[in-house]
Structure formats: structure tokens, C-alpha cells
Amino acid sequence: MSRFSGRALVVAALAGSLAGCGGGPPQGRADTVPPAHSPASASAGPARPPERSAPVGLRIPAIGVDTPVLRLGLAPDGTVEVPPVTDHDRAGWYRHSPAPGEPGPSVLLGHVTVGTHGDGVFRHLARLRRGDRIEARLENGTTERFAVTSVRTVAKAEFPTEDVYGNTTRPELRLITCGGPRAGGEYRDNVIVFAGPAAPGPSPRDHGER
Questions:
Q1: What is the pLDDT of residue 80?
Q2: How far is CA 157 from CA 12, 108, 150, 161, 189, in A?
Q3: Domains in the chain and their CATH numbers?
């Protein structure tokens, strides 16, 4: 079971609905929700096993993504961290979510555009199709493999918090960026990729076919 509850759930919802746009930092301070390790959170399920290993790389052959992965948490002012807006930007893993391979939704964020630097690492995320493969490289040297189950574009005002961050019994991925119309430097929508464990064998688009 995922530990997404209390502070971690709300913070992650803010991250997912506001990250990846190349704009200003998300608003929503950590002191508006209970601590991540409150008694209610601790009773939600067993503690994580000690072998938990963070992701250090992400590969999505169908859209040409092969990126290092940053760890994201909270900024010093209490807002949710997003990957920095830089040239050759990278994806980021929200470290209060399960690591890839652990039961529950592992959440990774990335920009679709990065201001004056142009395209972001997740610029083609909306092009993914059911069955496309995603590989998460972990710092312990192993690789967890997933396959896309669905791709959704939703208005930020209608962000599906429970669908994205709700507990799951198996390891899953959630990749989040921005999309849809843009006004005043901000995008109206989020693009969300849902993925589950991959079956053996290659995907038809593993070599980057568009």
C-alpha cells in the first residue's frame, strides 16, 4: 500500500496539478496540511522495506526520452518543488511517493517547455499510447519496466487527485506535465500518463516509432 496520505497526498496533488509548465512555483504551503508521518499516516500500512531504491534515470523509447531523474520534495518556502527550468532539463521524482517497483503510484514530473530554453523533457508525453514501454533505472543498479495503460489530458481545475495518487496494490507510474492551451505563459491542462508493470517482450514502438 502506498503511504500517500496526510501531508504527502496534498502536497503531491499540488505538485501534479501545477508542475511542468515552465512558469512560477506552485502555490500551496505545507503548513496547511498535517505532517506526513502523523499517526494516521503510520497506521495506513506497513513501513517501507529497507531495500527501497530511488530512481536515477527514466527512458521512454517511443518519444525519445532518456533522462536523469532528480529528487523533488519541498522548497524552503514550503511550496512544492518542481524540476529547475534549465536547458537540457531533467525529470523529477516526487520522493514522498513510492519508488518505482514498490506497490503504489510512483510520481514523476517534467516540463513541457522551459521558458527561453525551448522544449522540455516531457514535451511529447501526450503522444504516448497504450502499451508503450517506460523504464525506470534505480540507484541500486536494477531497472523497473512499465507499460502505458492510459494517457489523459485534464483541466488543472479538475485534476483527478484520487486517480493519480490513490493507493494501488501493484507498482505503477504516473508521469505528469502540462498541456492544452497556453495563456499568459501558463498552460490550462495537465497531461497524465498512467502505467503499470510491463509484460515480457518488446513494445512495437520500443525503437522510437512515432
A1: 59
A2: 15, 20, 20, 11, 8
A3: 6-43+54-197 (2.40.260.10)
